[in-house]
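Appendix B. Raw example, untouched.
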Amino acid sequence: MNEEEEIVSVRVVDEFDDLEAELDSNPDEVRIDSSDIREEASEIAIKAIHDGLEFSGSLPTVRRIAIVLIVAGSLLGLWFGVLSIAADPSDILGDNIQSLNADQIISGLIVTEIIDGDSGGDTPEGVEVRLLSSSGELVDRKFTDQDGRFQFSNQTTEVRIIEVQSEGNITERRVLVPGEVSQLTITLRAGDGVNEVDLRRVSNLEDSVRLGTIVAFFTVFSSALGFGAAMETLRGNSYRRAQWLSGLALFSRGGVFIGPGLILGGMALNRLAKQQFSDQIETEE
């Protein structure tokens, strides 16, 4: 410890001892002035901001602009990623779900089997056709007209079951989603038991939502790599690491092409400032 440091230490100790003695002798008269504390805190904050500005100002202009571009592109990617994660599936899939929620019609034709086993016989009139829910509860019922036709209007896209029972014939059941099948043709065959056919299409909606969520998380991860690239550019230690991280951050796709364009601009400026990175200086030496 040099002489100056010893003098400062002695002064601090003396001042502390004087304050302690005053507190012991007059405890009611010693008060902490909150305004002084606020002033000192403000001075510290202003000094920190000033030092930070001086530090950023010491960076070469090219690298400083590169950092701004990379951070801006990464922020766009982060924003789009978070929006995709928080979005409702109906917002992601849009028109597909909207069309499925519209009112639908279930219509069909009842025919009887002819003697040789082929379909295409008579079209019976007055046959009861029952519309059931997925749990088997009765929703509605109709009777076929003289042409053997029936129709259920204003149906939602919930799973429905069409059931046709007639004496002496096998009970026919069709499981479907209104709107997926335009026209039903049900053939009544002599016999006992139940013949159930599932006419529902394989839905890819869940797979689409799952894939969209994975892409959203990957977008957020890529944007985080962009912030790492900005920090590496700020430190100026490794040019290759900064460029590699920036390249991976392009997959954040903020604003489709706006974010990647900004990051590419930052990479181009880093290329111009390549000789300012420590690893490149060491290579030249």
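End of appendix B.
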